[in-house]
Amino acid sequence: KVDYDKDKTLWKELQHFFSVPSMLLLVITALGCGGLFSWLSYIEPLMLDHAGLPKSQMPTLMIVVGLGMVVGNFFGGWLTDKLHLVRASVIVFIAMISVLVIVFFFSHLLWLAWGLTFVCAVVAMSVGAPLNMMMFRVSPQAQMMGAAFMQAAFNTANSIGAYIGGLPLLYGFSTNYSSLMGALLASIGLLITFYLWRLIRF
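Request: output the structure for the sequence above.
Response:
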């Protein structure tokens, strides 16, 4: 719940919002969560061309992705309740990197690619809960502003992930290399998260 303060203005929220931890969180979200979109933006050519999935099964695959994202949201919330916020983020980023690397090496196996699709969606969406809760903690006087900027950061992650994930395809590499680029982005997010862990104490 966000308490309403009638004396709080946009300018006051902005003054409370702009700090080193909150800016780092936006960078973590924009880059680290881009790992999801490097994979998801090219899931159709990955599954059709690399894994050999029949095109008629793509709608079913996207349902699997959606179910994984729903489970990931619940799992991320549960993990955030159980662990320190930064620790939860670190665990999810490590899991995201691991799954994306596994996708890179083994997505040509169709039976395994189905399972990896679900797991990747679960892991990728799990990171949202701890990151958003951290934003509320580091900017307690500007929670509405923090929530708005976090959504913008996720949208930025969508653009960055799609662009970075498309670079290997531009240079003639196979579609599984997009997942490897996603792992790279998630690794950058993880490194910045470790740095943030040194700055904040809550």
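The chain has a mean pLDDT of 90.
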